[in-house]
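Mods, move this if it's the wrong board.
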Amino acid sequence: MFQQNVNIEHCRKILTKYWGFTSFRPLQEDIITSVLQGRDTLALMPTGGGKSMTFQIPAIAREGTCLVITPLIALMKEQVSRLNALEIKSVAIHSAMSGEEIDIAIENCIYGDYKFLYISPERISTPLFQGRAGRLNLSLVAIDEAHCISQWGYDFRPSYLKIASLRNIIDPAIPFLALTATATAQVTEDIMDKLKFREKNVLKTSFARKNISYLVRNVEEKGTYLVKTLKNAGGSGIVYVRSRKRCREVAEMLAENGISADYYHAGLPDEVRDKKQASWSTGQCRIIVATNAFGMGIDKADVRFVIHWDIPDSIENYFQESGRAGRDGKPSFAVLLYSSSDKTRLTDTLRQKFPPVEKIKDVYEALCNYLQIPLGSGKDSVFDFNMADFVSRFRLPVIETYNSLTFLQREGYVEFTEEINNPSRVHFVVGRDDLYKFQVANESFDGFIKLLLRSYTGMFSEFVPVNEESLSRKSGIPRDTIYNFLVRLSSMNIIRYIPGKKTALAIFTEERLERKALMISPDNYLRVREKYEARLGKMIDYAESVNRCRSVMLLDYFGEESDRCGICDVCRERNELELSKYEFDLILDGIKAILAEKHPDAEELAGMIDYPSEKVAKVLRWLLDHNKIAQDKDRKLTWK
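Not the wrong board. Structure tokens:
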């Protein structure tokens, strides 16, 4: 049964021992205390706020294993690697693994002393996991990216709805900790409802980033503006773009103008991406131009600016990406470049995002044929999936096909992973004594087996990643020979060898259905479209607003009240009027009240407000400049 016998002081010692900090960040301690009390907890923490520590530290402090659910396979692999480097035994289960690997991983967690078991959400409902979950000695269930459980959210994943079923299998006293960086009030309520929280319990910090100056720049020649700005700006930064092609083009343009810059996107090999990120993180490269693939695992605190070349399609995405600036608390900038063509592009995005229902069904049937799935088959099956090859073979339009697949995922028929670079893995299936006998009887394999055992540990208890290139360099044996040794040992049942590969995956969460049985509700289709359109509208409002504080607009979206920041472009322009917020708002309210009933000229209006006329004139000029009031041919004023 779940025990509550760990205090926060013990957790501080763990924080110091493994992470080198002597005190927790704001809210971390409150979340950890809530978890230690056995309470279901929803934690809303901004990007870079140290979310992972809020489940890692109490899990280390307690007996048992922490189950961590996350849809990002690359992130789970990175966290498992970091924890194991700290000698905290951790393992991951995801769709890129074979059934045998998953089986061994779960067994090791049941019988071993593993502290963390990471799992992707689509694996939760599989018979293999469901049949074993009750035997795990769990201390906590942590759900990362918890907004994915809400159909009101911007990144809904149906597999998240299966998480609550764990409560029927595991000790009901085990607390759930749901974590997200961005959630509206509606999504917050939905998360607690869908996860069947025993009580409402939300812990959150203010979303306000008081050191970030939010700016919108209306520019048609974005390249010219960017070069000029970056030549004058100090420090390192990120420039976000929406396409891989533009990613490279912008980076090359900056480099041609003498600005230290590189580019980063998901299509690059892992080792290249790691090298580029390391170069930027250490300051060798000043600017990284990237798609939204750049973000996971960024812990660089001194990012002075984040510039968006293209407008994102939601406030959530913009807030999360811009929030990578200024994590050290020093003054920083989040700049959105906006042009007349951006609104048109977003409108086109809306049309492309929602292909006709019959087109979605066409893509579903093509996908099933491409993967050779018979009717009634395929449930819980995992397939390598090459999007480029798929659209080429069936002569499908890329954007329409991608959005059709996204809708099929939202409807719960299939899930897709990001492209995964899975290394080769080796597991010895014979014991040490039998292996020794094999080596004595097969001298030609003896040297290679010794090389394996010298190079890697743990291969008798689990699958261990191996690198054929590294083994080749270390031994002087050609890589092809290394590969042949591994294949032959596997065929002789001495090892299990799974060659590495890089691919995205498609996971069928339901069996293949006939076209007429594929239910895509017109009401649901329309509702999803309307929600997406509303998010687009909020983003456009943010970009086009000239009279509301940027920070106030962002915080209002997440249901948080605040005073104007004083440092965004809107506030700075108002500051130049030499009026306090109180004075400006008082005069503004007076003008609105008068113009609601009458239409005086400027001089008449100034005399109707009990405030110095020069201050009223400043507010009037500001309202005229920002198109909030109009003046007719007789100079009479009207509120627009």
